[in-house]
Design a protein that fits this description.
Helix content: under 10%
Strand content: over 45%
Number of strands: 20
Strand order of the largest sheet: 1-2
Shape: elongated
Distance between the termini: 96 Å
CATH architecture of the largest domain: Ribbon
Number of domains: 2
């Protein structure tokens, strides 16, 4: 079995099946293959996928990750951050959707009252009213829960609130929010 010296890896992709050692690409210090770095040069960080120990060495971590100098790995930002320089909500450069910075500089989830939804207007999170039929909504056109007298239906990929009569002609919504047919007398 071929054993390669440090800073090289066994190359196995030859049609002949021959094995030989190839140097790790800079900035990899130790590697098991091309861009499979287990240790990076100084001032570089391993960008590893979850549950992997090896990855590509980068001088800057990609968006959504920060450089952890203790481990030498690009680690994922807190869920509240879309871009960060450290592990907590206090280390956000930018907040994720539905989060905004409080007075202490932390990204916190924007909470809106019943009948309103979070909207991002010019990078500011504000609460805007839902459609008048919605009790709760995710945006102006997508209801989560309806006010009394309305039923939640899906139309064209959106959930909206309608009266029973709007859904089926000849029907109405009773006091218990149930659809009832009208008994016509001739």
């Amino acid at each position: 079995m071929l054993k390669c010296p440090e800073k090289t890896y066994i190359y196995t992709e030859l049609p002949s099946g021959d094995l030989f050692c190839i140097s790790c690409d800079y900035p990899c210090e130790l590697c098991t293959g091309r861009n499979n770095c287990s240790q990076c040069a100084t001032d570089f960080y391993r960008n590893v996928e979850e549950n992997w120990s090896e990855g590509e060495c980068l001088s800057r971590c990609p968006e959504g990750k920060y450089p952890d100098s203790d481990s030498g790995i690009c680690k994922s930002c807190d869920v509240s951050c879309s871009n960060c320089y450290g592990p907590t909500s206090r280390h956000c450069r930018e907040c994720s959707i539905e989060y905004s910075k409080d007075q202490e500089g932390r990204c916190i989830r924007k909470q809106c009252s019943e009948g309103t939804h979070v909207a991002n207007i010019d990078n500011m999170l504000i609460c805007l009213p839902c459609d008048h039929r919605c009790l709760r909504c995710s945006d102006l056109e997508s209801c989560i829960e309806c006010k009394d007298g309305y039923l939640l239906v899906e139309e064209e990929g959106k959930k909206i609130c309608k009266t029973c009569g709007e859904i089926n002609s000849g029907y109405y919504t009773d006091d218990n929010n149930n659809c009832k047919g009208i008994n016509w007398v001739i």
